[in-house]
Design a protein that fits this description.
The protein is of the alpha/beta class. The chain contains seven helices and six strands. The chain is globular.
């Protein structure tokens, strides 16, 4: 089985952040959610007093301000799907495991024939429905869905994915900026 991370690996940047900013341009009241989201991000990524799941509970509140989330997702990907590419070339049947929300990545992965495991978030309420699919949680979710499968190759741009890289026969570190793949660095 070939497994990929999504953001920073198959697509530059962060899809959730980009979708949030897309929505803020179309619905300016989304900007009102940014101060609280910024404080939670500071608590999560700088001070380490807030876990990622709690941060994302705050982040996804902006979804309640979008009148037709499905139409907005379609417009977003119509404008942004061309960004998917780089040195990785996933094939139909390959697996994407992402910390991004499943509702955001589902359609674009399905169009490419990719299977998806991602964070569960209600796209209409912003309610986080389970743990953030990151780090060890990615391994747990992979084993839950594919208990006997072996990861032949794994691709990611982030050391947050060290747990998946450790269980893969081969793992590659992706640098989209340089357009390169390198063997996964030893920890």
């Amino acid at each position: 089985m070939i497994v990929y991370d999504f953001d920073g690996t198959l697509r530059p940047g962060d899809s959730t952040r980009d979708f949030l900013m897309w929505c803020a341009r179309r619905y300016p009241r989304v900007l009102l959610t940014l101060p609280c989201t910024g404080l939670m991000a500071l608590g999560c990524y700088t001070l380490h007093v807030v876990d990622k799941t709690r941060f994302k509970r705050t982040l996804y509140r902006f979804l309640t301000l979008i009148p037709d989330i499905d139409a907005e997702l379609e417009r977003f990907w119509r404008a942004n799907e061309h960004l998917i590419g780089g040195p990785c070339h996933p094939h139909p049947g390959d697996l994407v495991i992402s910390a991004g929300p499943e509702f955001l990545l589902r359609d674009v992965c399905e169009r490419r024939g990719l299977t998806l495991i991602a964070s569960q978030v209600d796209p209409h309420t912003g309610r986080v429905l389970g743990p953030n699919c990151s780090g060890e949680e990615k391994v747990r979710r992979f084993r839950e869905q594919y208990p006997d499968a072996q990861i032949e190759e794994f691709y990611s741009d982030s050391h947050n994915d060290d747990p998946l890289a450790r269980i893969a026969a081969k793992a590659y570190f992706v640098d989209l900026g340089e357009g390169t793949l390198a063997p996964w660095p030893e920890a």
